[in-house]
């Protein structure tokens, strides 16, 4: 029997079970029928963050950013490009630290952009500063393998 993974829908936040070998087959949400993987980062608020980080069985990469931050705006296209390359094996989230100051405080975000990788609901690594898509993908793959 194939291993089943929990995947949180980026649209309605429903938790779905997907066979591990079927992740690349464009699975859809059982509740809202939208694609579980969009090849785009998902913007999450404080209310949605814990569910996505805690309930996804795949690693979750979080970009802590702010609209006023030049390096954050510069990195945004690279982060979106990385989503297309890392999904469906990694979920990419974006957290606006101005709108979700509680998350920035909880994770002690001192500079932005800061990228944090979560697995099993806990942070396993972080990197501060802007990165291009190639460096970002390589860092995630190397870090997830080592965990």
From TrEMBL:
<keyword id="KW-0249">Electron transport</keyword>
<comment type="similarity">
    <text>Belongs to the thioredoxin family.</text>
</comment>
<dbReference type="InterPro" id="IPR036249">
    <property type="entry name" value="Thioredoxin-like_sf"/>
</dbReference>
<protein>
    <recommendedName>
        <fullName>Thioredoxin</fullName>
    </recommendedName>
</protein>
<dbReference type="InterPro" id="IPR049299">
    <property type="entry name" value="Thio2_N"/>
</dbReference>
<dbReference type="GO" id="GO:0015035">
    <property type="term" value="F:protein-disulfide reductase activity"/>
</dbReference>
<dbReference type="InterPro" id="IPR005746">
    <property type="entry name" value="Thioredoxin"/>
</dbReference>
<dbReference type="InterPro" id="IPR013766">
    <property type="entry name" value="Thioredoxin_domain"/>
</dbReference>
<dbReference type="GO" id="GO:0046872">
    <property type="term" value="F:metal ion binding"/>
</dbReference>
<dbReference type="GO" id="GO:0005829">
    <property type="term" value="C:cytosol"/>
</dbReference>
<feature type="domain" description="Thioredoxin">
    <location>
        <begin position="33"/>
        <end position="145"/>
    </location>
</feature>
<dbReference type="Pfam" id="PF21352">
    <property type="entry name" value="Zn_ribbon_Thio2"/>
</dbReference>
<dbReference type="Pfam" id="PF00085">
    <property type="entry name" value="Thioredoxin"/>
</dbReference>
<keyword id="KW-0479">Metal-binding</keyword>
<keyword id="KW-0813">Transport</keyword>
<keyword id="KW-0676">Redox-active center</keyword>
<dbReference type="InterPro" id="IPR017937">
    <property type="entry name" value="Thioredoxin_CS"/>
</dbReference>
<dbReference type="GO" id="GO:0045454">
    <property type="term" value="P:cell redox homeostasis"/>
</dbReference>
<keyword id="KW-1015">Disulfide bond</keyword>
